[in-house]
Amino acid sequence: MGFKGAFLSWIALYGWIFVFLHVCHGDLSYSVPEETKKGFVVGNVAKDLALDVKGLSYRESRLDTEDNDKRFCDINLQTGELFVVDRIDREELCGSKISCNLRYELVLENPLELHQVSLHIEDINDNSPVFPKNEIKLEIAESADKGARFPLDEAHDADVGRNGIQSYTLEKNNHFTLAVHSNSDGGKYSELILDKELDREQQQEMVLTLTATDGGTPQRSSTVTIHVTVLDANDNLPVFTQQTYEVRLFENSPLGTAVVTVSASDADEGANGEVTYDFNRISDKAAKLFSIDSASGEITVIGPVDFEDKREHEIRVQAKDGAGLASTAKVLVNIVDVNDNAPVIFLKSFKNHVLEHALPGTEVGMINVQDKDSEGNRQVRCSIQQNVPFKLNPSIKNYYSLVTAAELDRELVSEYNITIVATDEGNPPLSSSKTIHLSVSDINDNPPVFEEQSYSAYVSENNKPGSSVCSVTARDPDWRQNGTVFYSLLPSEVNGVPLSSYLSINGDTGVIHAVRAFDYEQFRSFKVQVVARDNGSPPLSSNVTVSVFITDENDNSPQILYPTPEGNSFMTEMVPKAALSGSLLSKVIAVDADSGQNAWLSYQIVKSTDPGLFTIGVHSGEIRAQRDISESDSMKQNLVISVKDNGQPSLSTTCAVYLLISDNLAEVPELKDMSYEENNSKLTSYLIIALVSVSTFFLTFIILIIAVRLCHRRKPRLLFDGAVAIPSAYLPPNYADVDRTGTLRSTYNYDAYMTTGSRTSDFKFVTSYNDNTLAAGSTLKKSPNDNSNCLDFFEDASKCSTLVNN
Ligand SMILES: *[C@@H]1O[C@H](CO)[C@@H](O)[C@H](O)[C@H]1NC(C)=O
Ligand SMILES: *[C@@H]1O[C@H](CO)[C@@H](O)[C@H](O)[C@H]1NC(C)=O
Ligand SMILES: *[C@@H]1O[C@H](CO)[C@@H](O)[C@H](O)[C@H]1NC(C)=O
């Protein structure tokens, strides 16, 4: 290349230096890049000043700084070159000043010559941008709007000009973009611009890298970490874990039982995320039952939970954060039934009475059972546990009809206490019971029953009329009038006479009375049917036979049949003279109408002409010779014989027996005459008696006619007809009206039958009937006349009977 080549390369190396070379007033100006190595020749001063190199050293050329500061350059006195002696750092010397010049004075002596040398330090890109801190911390509220700007720390580059910071770049991210601005001093700074809203709950922190780049060659850059903390805003509602909490809770749960714990979370933080719970909407009822722990959200029981009161509680719970944002959830508390209610039995309809003999299945009442519990706990079974003839028939739903299971008999059981037990199917089961009282009402299903199969009555004859003969009793277990017994006699005849003239019966008491005196000799017994009838409708009756036996009384004296007392009373027995001792001579024959002892006769010789000649058989009445008849014995022998019965007291009759000891009747003429005389006198006396009788009869007849006329109405007729006790219920209406009392009380029965014969029959038994009857005898016509008449009659009657006795 030679010189030309070397020259060109010199130009290339240093040519640009001369661009800045100023030759002003002989002053020198050079440029040198900073940080050149020591010895680097900046320029040739000698040449540029056109000085002789040789003169440099003898003229004591030197380079002075203006203020004796550090010198970075020096001059080579041999060559006149200006070279670098120390490291030149533009940034140290001039900082951020764009132009950086070092000023020197070149001093030459002999002659003193002063030249200004200016050394321009050129910048090289030897500094990277520097951020003030190696981390930028930003706190941005999540609520920041899009477009919000956040200035970032400016990076600094010690270099100037192009070597200074030219741009910033931001790491790619979702939220921010970068805007770069220039300062008034030419620096550049950047701002973060929010491009998309932040969500703390999504991303709480962000780390971005910001790069600052200068414009040097080669380019230098540096980065800084932007640490973005997203600040919370109360932008989140508390959120329940469930929209609806559905829980089951047993009724009667003890206080304090936990029902459910609701939980809500709030994505916010701090107070914004602190959740408290409360009831939002709650019924008054539920408010008394549940409470919620505001901190934990636990719902507990504070009152008596009753399924029967309410089966489901719906509660709205609210969760609220510290800043007042709230959300709600629903809590459904389903109360689970517990068997805590016993069934209740209601009597829907009930008859207090059921008719006996009602057909089985007759409905007595209707019951209804209710249980407030649910499902199995309200399934109720109803039963009757006693042994009673009733059963329950299930009807619709919880209705049961109480019906009879068998025929009832009031006479056996007249009332029932029916206990109905209702049991539910809970576990354990609960039960309750109800007792209902039922009475069986009567129907007339029992006839009166006599206490005995038959009755016998013994009455001694000549009884007092009105005396009681016997008493019958019949029982009827029915109720009240259905069991009230009336007695009556069944009409019949005894020996052709109506029974009523012999007996009457007290319809109430069943006492049978004799109406008249009986005569054993007339009849000894008879039967009578007594009917007992109750007062039911229709009435029931039964009958019994009463046998009346009349007992004998010694009311008949012995009657001599032979020898006949009248007519041939003087009839004589012939006794043969040769009759031997013990031979049967005659016989007294006597009878007694009575019977038994009363008719047991004994014979006795009371008086005899020759005592010791004859004997009589005490029982046979045979008269026998006690010894042989002798000639000396009187021919006529009279015996008086007494015949005596064995009654108490005994009655006796006497008769005379004439015995003639003779073999020939002709031997006794006196006797014949005597008998004729007797006959004649008898005839005349008969005639006299007849005459007297006829006239007496006539007279009596006339007197009677007059008497009858006079006291026709006063004299009673003796009537015993209609002497039947007729129960008042069966009297025809006109009978009932007899006394105009409307109803005929049984005490009037006797009255009634006493007056049935005719209106004129006023005869009353004053003494014969029981005092009750008579005491009530308001209708008896008790005139003294009548009474005396009656008594007269009885007196007469007794006279008659005494006559008979005699
Ligand atoms: C029924 O109960 C009543 C009262 O409790 C009692 O007086 C009566 O004797 C009872 N009857 C029966 C038949 O048990
Ligand atoms: C008597 O029985 C009849 C039915 O035979 C009945 O109608 C009546 O009520 C009963 N009387 C009484 C008092 O029970
Ligand atoms: C008396 O009772 C019997 C059976 O007890 C009956 O056959 C008869 O008819 C009854 N007589 C009267 C008159 O009631």
UniProtKB/TrEMBL annotation:
Role: Potential calcium-dependent cell-adhesion protein. May be involved in the establishment and maintenance of specific neuronal connections in the brain.
One Pfam family per UniProt: Cadherin_2
Main subcellular location of this protein, as a coarse class: membrane
GO MF annotation terms: calcium ion binding
Location(s), subcellular: Cell membrane
Membrane topology: Single-pass type I membrane protein
Protein name, per record: Cadherin domain-containing protein
Segments crossing the lipid bilayer: 686-708
Residue ranges occupied by any Cadherin domain in the UniProt entry: 31-131, 132-240, 241-345, 346-450, 451-560, 575-671
One BP annotation, GO: anatomical structure morphogenesis
